[in-house]
Design brief:
Helix content is 58%, strand content 0%. By secondary structure, it is mainly α. This is AAA ATPase AAA+ lid domain-containing protein.
């Protein structure tokens, strides 16, 4: 699940219009890379989510 979320973050970073469009978009998977940046974004969002659950 963590890898899937990191991949979704990478896709949204590369193609920000993906959430705003109802049209089918032509994506180039070879241009999408999941790196440390996406993992950091994921960990930060999980941390904030956990804080909101407890406080």
């Amino acid at each position: 699940a963590l890898c899937t979320e990191a991949a979704l973050n990478a896709i949204q970073r590369k193609y920000p219009q993906i959430d705003k469009s109802n049209d089918c978009l032509l994506l180039k998977p070879e241009e999408i890379s999941v790196g440390l940046k996406e993992i950091k974004i994921l960990i930060k969002s999980m941390f904030v989510f956990c804080l909101n659950c407890f406080f």
